[in-house]
From TrEMBL:
<dbReference type="GO" id="GO:0052913">
    <property type="term" value="F:16S rRNA (guanine(966)-N(2))-methyltransferase activity"/>
</dbReference>
<protein>
    <submittedName>
        <fullName>16S rRNA (Guanine(966)-N(2))-methyltransferase RsmD</fullName>
        <ecNumber>2.1.1.171</ecNumber>
    </submittedName>
</protein>
<dbReference type="Pfam" id="PF03602">
    <property type="entry name" value="Cons_hypoth95"/>
</dbReference>
<dbReference type="InterPro" id="IPR004398">
    <property type="entry name" value="RNA_MeTrfase_RsmD"/>
</dbReference>
<keyword id="KW-0808">Transferase</keyword>
<dbReference type="InterPro" id="IPR029063">
    <property type="entry name" value="SAM-dependent_MTases_sf"/>
</dbReference>
<keyword id="KW-0489">Methyltransferase</keyword>
Length: 200
C-alpha cells in the first residue's frame, strides 16, 4: 500500500496480514475521500485535526497527515493493528507531536469525553462492514455530546454500498458517493445545534 499524495507521496506503508483482521481501503477510495474532505473543509486538509476511529493500518489518517493535517489521533481496539499504525508512522519519521496511537475502544473514549487532540475538524469512520451504520452514528453523537468536535466538523464514513449510511442527529449529509461495493458518506456537523436538540 502506498501513500497517494502529499509529503510522503509514493511511500509504502505496511498492511495487516489477513483480511479477517482489517479491510484496507483501496487507493481509489482513499483518493476520493481526501478530495471530498479537501474541498469541504473551509481551510482544506492543511492544519486540520483528525480522528481516525477504526484505524487498521492507519492509511486514512496517515494520508491526511501527508497532505498537511496538523494532528491525527488513531484508534484501534486490536493490539496488532495499533502496533502496525505506530510502525507505519515511525517508518515515515512522522513528528511525534503530530499523532497519538491508542489501542482502545474509540466509542467508549468518545462517550467519556477523553480523546487527545480535540476538537476535531475531521472524523474518519471505517468500521467493519458487518456492524452497519451503528458505530458511526454512536461515535458522531458521542463526540458532539462530549464537546470533541469543531463547530463545522466533517465525519467521513466508509460502508458497504448495499447498506444505508449513518444519519446521526445533528449532522447534515453533504455528499454520498459509490465506488463498486464501497460507499462513502460525508456528513457535516451543524454546530448551531445544542445537546438538547440532539437528545430530542
Amino acid at each position: 500500500m502506498r501513500i497517494i499524495s502529499g509529503q510522503w507521496r509514493g511511500r509504502k506503508i505496511a498492511e495487516p496480514q489477513g483480511r479477517d483482521v482489517t479491510r484496507p481501503t483501496t487507493d481509489r477510495v482513499r483518493e476520493a475521500m481526501a478530495s471530498m474532505v479537501d474541498s469541504s473543509l473551509p481551510q482544506g486538509i492543511e492544519g486540520a485535526r483528525v480522528l481516525d476511529a477504526f484505524a487498521g493500518s492507519g492509511a486514512l489518517g496517515i494520508e491526511m497527515l501527508s497532505r498537511g493535517a496538523a494532528f491525527a489521533a488513531f484508534f484501534d481496539i486490536n493490539r496488532s493493528a495499533a502496533a502496525l499504525v505506530r510502525k507505519n508512522l515511525e517508518s515515515l519519521s512522522a513528528p511525534r507531536s503530530s499523532y497519538r496511537v491508542f489501542c482502545a475502544d474509540c466509542l467508549a473514549s468518545a462517550a467519556r469525553g477523553r480523546i487527545e487532540g480535540a476538537p476535531f475538524d475531521l472524523v474518519m469512520v471505517d468500521a467493519p462492514y458487518a456492524l452497519g451504520a451503528d458505530p458511526a452514528t454512536q461515535l458522531a453523537e458521542s463526540l458532539v455530546k462530549s464537546g470533541l468536535l469543531a463547530s463545522d466538523a466533517l465525519v467521513l464514513v466508509e460502508h458497504a454500498a448495499a447498506d444505508e449510511g449513518p444519519r446521526p442527529d445533528g449532522f447534515i449529509v453533504e455528499r454520498e458517493k459509490r465506488y463498486g461495493s464501497t460507499a462513502v458518506d460525508l456528513l457535516r456537523f451543524d454546530g448551531s445545534l445544542t445537546i438538547e436538540d440532539i437528545d430530542r
